[in-house]
């Protein structure tokens, strides 16, 4: 179930925040119809990300190398994560 939940998370959290709630509810409905109630309940409990969290997630996916460089620079400066 963890892999399936991860797939749903990836799909939902890449959407613009304005589309998240409707897509989440539709995914939960689809999963229930497929008989996967436990996974549907997990998906239904997901909360819409704030704009900064959504943006950080998008950057981590789209600019992974740049984010790694930024984290490494922070470590070099003694900034904790």
Task: Describe the 3D structure.
With 81 residues, the protein is an all-alpha fold. 77% of the residues lie in helices and 0% in strands. The protein has 5 helices and no strands. The protein has helices at 2-13, 17-33, 37-44, 51-62, 64-76. The longest helix has 17 residues, at 17-33. The two termini are 29 Å apart. The model has no long low-confidence stretch (mean pLDDT 90).
How is this structure best summarized?
By secondary structure, this protein is an all-alpha fold. The protein is built from five helices and no strands.
Give me some keywords for this one:
about 80 residues, mainly alpha, 5 helices
Give me the secondary-structure category. Answer: mainly alpha
Distance between the termini: 29 Å
Query: Can you summarize the main beta sheet?
Result: none
Q: What would the principal axes of the Cα set say about the shape?
A: elongated
Helix fraction, binned, reads over 70%
Q: What is the overall pLDDT average?
A: 90
DSSP strand count:
0
Unreliable stretches (pLDDT < 50, length at least 5) are none
Order of helices and strands: HHHHH
Beta-sheet strand percentage? under 5%
Computed CA radius of gyration, to the nearest angstrom: 16 Å
Topology:
Layout (H helix, E strand, L loop, with lengths): L1 H12 L3 H17 L3 H8 L6 H12 L1 H13 L5
């Amino acid at each position: 179930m963890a892999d399936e939940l991860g797939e749903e998370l990836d799909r939902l959290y890449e959407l613009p925040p304005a589309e998240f709630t409707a897509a989440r509810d539709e995914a939960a409905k689809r999963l229930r119809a497929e008989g996967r109630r436990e996974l549907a309940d997990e998906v239904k409990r997901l909360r819409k990300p704030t704009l900064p969290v959504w943006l950080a997630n998008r950057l981590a996916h789209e600019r992974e190398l740049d984010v790694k460089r930024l984290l490494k620079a922070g470590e070099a400066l003694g900034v904790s994560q």
